[in-house]
Amino acid sequence: MRPLYGLGSLLFHVGILLVPLFYVGHVTLWGSVLPAWWPRIATGTADVLTYLALAGFAVVLLERLLVKSSRDLSRGGDIGILLMLAVLVGSGYWAAHPAASPLAPRTMLLVHMLAGNLALILTPVSKIVHCVLAPLTQLLGEVGWRFPAESGRHVAIALAKENEPI
User: Fold this and answer.
1) pTM confidence score
2) How far is it, in rounded angstroms, from Cα 52 to Cα 78?
3) Does the pLDDT of residue 46 top 90, yes or no?
């Protein structure tokens, strides 16, 4: 029903999930604990994902502020988390590109690390946790309906809904 919001949300999520896990700079820092085969995203690709994430952030934020139905569902903390994630993404870009940074390189790196640590601390107790839990809950739902084989069909029969999709 809101394709622009959906696209913005997708771009934002892709950027904030792929870059921290696979950007070559991050993977290099974690080199001693990650296997050698761990995939790496080159700086140019990470830059594009960062731009897309920031564009998606802008769409999501504007939607939450300007559209009444979204505004009614958003609390101040939700907007705060969005802003903190935008600081994390922006400071990461500037930490990787110190010539473009508005602050000294070490200061920008400190801002990025502090924002990243704050995001990690807030993840389990905020809406950020949906980035981890949503795929797992969808997987569990699919497994629950399809494993063991025919279990979904048996439930549908028990509910007298055998002609409806699972």
Assistant:
1) 0.73
2) 20
3) yes
